Amino acid sequence: SSVQTIGEEQIQNPYTELLVLKGHQDIVRFLVQIDDYRFASAGDDGIIFIWNAQTGEKLYELHGHTHKITAIAPFSSSDVTEENTDLIITASADRTVIVWDCASGRQVQKVSCFHSTVKCLTVLQRLNVWLSGGSDLCIWNRKLDLLCKTSHLTDAGISALVELPKNCVAAAVGKELIIFRLIASSNGSEGWNILEVKRLVDHQDNISSLVSVNDLTFVTGSHIGELIVWDALDWTKQASECNFWDSSVHPDVQPEIKLSQSPHETSVQHLTSDEECVFAAVGKGIYVYNLQMKRVIACQRTAHDSSVLHIEKLPNRQLISCSEDGSVRIWELREKQQLPAEPVPTGFFNMWGFGRANKQANQAAKKMHENTPVYFLELVGDLIGHSSAVQMFLYFGELGLATCSADHLIILWKDGERESSLRSLTLFRKLAQNGDLQLRL
């Protein structure tokens, strides 16, 4: 296999302790962060659990759905008449949506008027509403009052939603990207209207991933490996990348001999971004696309043995990826040491005047090489704990990393040195308290 390996000495991998959280009875597909120390998990058993990310304690077990969970989103209420309440919204294949109170674990509201399964949920915190996407696009308030809905879009329905500026959203419907504008009622009531303003048909296959970069840019990826960068204000196409598997475009990558690539191998499974780059999980590989240069600046073509399902950029220069092969890997984005350009060959080609042209081309290449930093992804950590596909993960900073898998488990990966020092500190405090107690006696 051409997959990179790393030995037992993983100096840059802090996650040397793990907590295994049990409770789910089927594939765990979703993790959503509630606050700095709590998160919720959900999957094919239809149950939602709320956990403490610091201790691994199970806080609540939420029952209300009868089929698998298809979408989950956090929703912090900011109603001026009430205290701030941490809520989560869950959608299920049983065609219901439920709002839960994370502080009490109780069911706040339930709606079961859907004609099809809700596949995605998006909260527009600024407008204090949320959207559900299925065969229709619906607008709801936090009390689950339906404010507005579109007419039936397609049997395939909306697979992903992303918020855009000026009260707009982009919805992935098969190969199409539909831009909707949300218009508030002008008479002061809570009514809303949904206006379809544009359909973008640049993708050649179904859109599989959507991500907002900032107020000016968003990015989409498709099942056949297309990545398109869009202007978030006028929805024009800014750039695209369709050559993830072309070794002539990425010469630093070791070529693989293959007769053909199946769509499964080139599909963009997940996208994430920072202000500078988009990080794409494409087939078994991960790619770093620079938005300013409009090109891939680093890639690991075979990052895992199987498809990469989720990727995130950490606050430092590290990336984390997880895969169907059950592994979770940490990567460091590093700049390559630039090598001097090779001298122009002399001899036979010079006789025919090729030398001069070659020299000019070489100088141009050298200039471009000097001005363009080249990066690579180095494997610095390999987390082996799950026995089946790792669906996604959450990063909790110093509290560690939470992963969920098809093996029905959630694992909390902890910084071993930090946990050891915390245990020592707790022990010293207990010893000091016991000493004070003995002195008093």
From TrEMBL:
One of its GO terms (biological process) is regulation of autophagy. InterPro entries: WD40/YVTN_repeat-like_dom_sf, WD40_PAC1, WD40_repeat_CS, WD40_repeat_dom_sf, WD40_rpt, WDR41. GO terms for cellular component: lysosomal membrane. Pfam families: Beta-prop_WDR41 (PF25178). Its main location: cytoplasm. It comes from the Eukaryota. Gene3D superfamilies: YVTN repeat-like/Quinoprotein amine dehydrogenase. It is found in: Cytoplasm. This is WD repeat-containing protein 41. It comes from Zosterops hypoxanthus. The lineage of its organism: Eukaryota, Metazoa, Chordata, Craniata, Vertebrata.
